[in-house]
């Protein structure tokens, strides 16, 4: 059930992270343990290499990516599908507060605007527009992460996808992206040649 909880009063924040190289890490809300570890690993590596890690403040891969980035320092941005004074999942409240203190929360929605299903594809297009590349860790064939990846491809951003077992539904979306031209990556250092600004 969706719940709306006050995060913090909306106030002016340091927007310097928006002037840094940004990479999105996205994937399934119902991620596997392997997917969570991969998201954390990629986020730590990219943050250490100088990128700001961007995601959507959802369960699963998003949370693991933020944990990895925040372990390095204030190098993360969360794009919200609600107003900045609201988080739609109680278990995301502590994470939202940590990002608010150590990174940046952004949204196109006014304070007080709660979650609606159509907000999240809109949020995904902002994620794609902010970044130079998108890494899809795990995604089923109808995952919202594929929406982000397609927006990114349409904008000329780099799209990376991790492969997995061919019979595992959580990897079917990644395999589809690879077939469509996304760069297959197994280790985060494999991205550096394509993301030469890092």
Descriptive account of the structure:
The protein is of the alpha/beta class. Helices cover 37% and strands 15% of the residues. It has six helices and nine strands; from the N terminus they run ββαβαββαβαβαβαβ. Strands 6-4-3-2-7-8-9 form a seven-stranded parallel beta sheet, with helices on both faces. It has a two-stranded antiparallel sheet with strand order 1-5. The radius of gyration is 15 Å and the shape is globular. The model is unreliable at 1-12 (pLDDT under 50).
SSE arrangement, N to C: EEHEHEEHEHEHEHE
Strand arrangement, largest sheet? 6-4-3-2-7-8-9
| Amino-to-carboxy terminus distance | 40 Å
Content of β-strand = 15-25%
> What is the gyration radius calculated from CA atoms?
15 Å
The number of helices is 6
Structural class: alpha/beta
Detail the poorly predicted runs. 1-12
Envelope shape:
globular
Per DSSP E runs of 2 or more residues, the count of β-strands stands at: 9
Largest sheet: 7 strands, parallel
Write the layout of secondary structure elements.
Elements: E1 5-6, E2 22-26, H1 33-49, E3 52-55, H2 61-72, E4 76-79, E5 86-87, H3 93-102, E6 104-106, H4 119-130, E7 133-136, H5 144-154, E8 158-161, H6 169-179, E9 183-184
Helix pairs in contact: 1-2, 4-5
Provide the descriptors you would attach to this structure in a database record:
198 residues; alpha/beta; two-stranded antiparallel sheet; disordered N terminus
């Amino acid at each position: 059930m969706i719940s709306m909880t006050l995060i913090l009063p909306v106030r002016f924040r340091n927007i310097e992270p928006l002037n840094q190289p940004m990479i999105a890490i996205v994937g399934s809300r119902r991620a596997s343990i392997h997917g969570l570890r991969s998201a954390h690993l990629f986020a730590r590596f990219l943050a250490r290499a100088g990128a700001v890690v961007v995601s959507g403040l959802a369960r699963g891969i998003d949370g693991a990516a933020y944990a990895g980035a925040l372990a390095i320092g204030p190098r993360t941005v969360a794009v919200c599908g609600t107003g900045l004074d609201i988080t739609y999942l109680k278990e995301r409240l502590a994470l939202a507060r940590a990002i608010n203190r150590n990174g940046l929360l952004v949204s196109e929605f006014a304070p007080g605007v709660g979650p609606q299903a159509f907000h999240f594809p809109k949020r995904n297009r902002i994620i794609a527009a902010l970044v130079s590349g998108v890494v899809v860790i795990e995604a089923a064939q109808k995952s919202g992460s594929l929406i982000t990846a397609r927006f990114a491809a349409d904008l000329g951003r780099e799209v990376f996808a991790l492969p997995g077992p061919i019979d595992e539904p959580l990897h079917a979306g990644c395999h589809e992206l690879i077939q469509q031209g996304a760069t297959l990556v197994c280790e985060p250092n494999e991205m550096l040649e394509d993301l030469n600004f890092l």
